[in-house]
Design brief:
The chain is α/β, with parallel strands linked by helices. The protein contains 12 helices and 15 strands. Belongs to the NAD(P)-dependent epimerase/dehydratase family.
Length: 351
């Protein structure tokens, strides 16, 4: 099967969204990027020097002038329905992206992540062009159940101390009977709507429960995008705060590998499962402390680091079991972490 011909990317000015825009524009598809350009206002620790939306909106205009850029909000159901019509695929990356912001303003978090996803699905269901949909979900849907898995402490990291999780967290891990955050709940709500619409045959759709995605054109901050936040702070010689002890582990996935996973579904969605854990898997993991060492080896720089209390909703270890994506989508990560970070640093220094 071939990639879709007409693609709408919600959150098209975001980090992941802009790479989806680029991916399909490079393949000659008709691409629409929709964004409300609100990121800086909604993240407390973001600032204009790390304005992802403004940077990527301009990047798209300068490099892909054929892309139709639409400034609109997924909460505006009528406007969204008008934009969705005519596309055969929707990459839904628009969202409120931070746990911290969801704790401060859970209503906006719900309206954007849960209601916004519902609006996308309804627009797709009603569109004559019958688009397939992929949603950017999150590992936070599993809540504190992740922390119920026993871990052992090693010199620079935690790791699972249960052989059942050697390959990482599967999609079957329970989402019930545990503490969540408003962000985790709002994303899970959208995630479940995706599964429901898919299972009823209303829309060909899938939710991709992402681990840590990184790559060029990402401007991280304390609230979200920690890989870029650590890297940029190191390159700028700005002090960093680590919440916890720095031994927490994540699997990391280069953004272009993520977009390939989206496309693998959108190119042939019929009969496919509606939810996937997607990340770097056990072969691409790092702790915060180990990442600081990698940055120093890559850049020769090391910034000042202080430590603070663990933050609500944090997980000591989260690693994705990507076997379902491998089996069903014939997909696996291709870019290792060192190579991906070389690309990130090269992009940052070329700006």
């Amino acid at each position: 099967m071939s990639s879709p011909d007409a693609v709408l990317v919600t959150g098209g000015a975001g980090f992941v969204g802009s790479h989806a825009v680029e991916y399909y524009a490079e393949r000659g598809a008709e691409v629409t990027a929709l964004d409300n350009l609100s990121r800086v206002e909604t993240l407390e620790t973001a600032d204009e020097s790390r304005n992802t939306a403004a940077y990527n909106w301009n990047y798209i205009a300068e490099n892909y002038p054929q892309v139709d850029r639409v400034q609109a909000d997924v909460r505006d159901e009528e406007r969204l329905a008008d934009v969705v019509e005519g596309h055969d695929a929707v990459v839904h990356t628009a969202g409120q992206v931070a746990v911290t912001a969801s704790l401060e303003d859970p209503r906006t978090d719900f309206e954007v992540n849960a209601e916004g996803t519902f609006n996308v699905l309804e627009a797709a269901r009603n569109a004559e062009s019958d688009p397939a949909v992929v949603m950017a979900s999150t590992n936070k849907v599993y809540g504190d159940n992740v922390n119920e898995i026993p871990v052992r402490e090693e010199e620079t990291r935690y790791w699972y101390d249960d052989p059942d999780y050697d390959a990482g967290i599967p999609e079957s891990l329970s989402i019930d009977d545990c503490e969540h955050t408003p962000y985790g709940v709002s994303k899970l709500t959208g995630d479940l709507y995706v599964q429901d619409y898919a299972d009823r045959g209303a829309v060909d759709a899938a939710a991709f429960r992402m681990s840590c995605i990184y790559g060029p054109r990402q401007f991280g901050n304390e609230d979200q995008g920690w890989v870029a936040h650590f890297a940029i702070s190191t390159l700028r010689d700005e002090p960093l705060t680590i919440f916890g002890d720095g031994k927490q582990v994540r699997d990391v996935l280069y953004v272009k590998d993520l977009i390939r996973a989206y496309d693998a579904f959108l190119s042939d969605p019929e009969g496919k499962p509606a939810v996937y854990n997607v990340g770097g898997g056990p072969e691409n993991t790092t702790s915060l402390l180990e990442f600081l060492d990698l940055l120093e080896a890559e850049t020769g720089a090391r910034t000042d680091v202080s430590f603070d209390e663990w933050r609500e909703g944090d997980q000591k270890v989260y690693v994705s079991d990507v076997s379902r994506a491998r089996d069903e989508l014939d997909w696996e990560p291709e870019v290792d972490f060192e190579t991906g970070m070389e690309c990130f640093v090269e992009w940052w220094e070329s700006r």
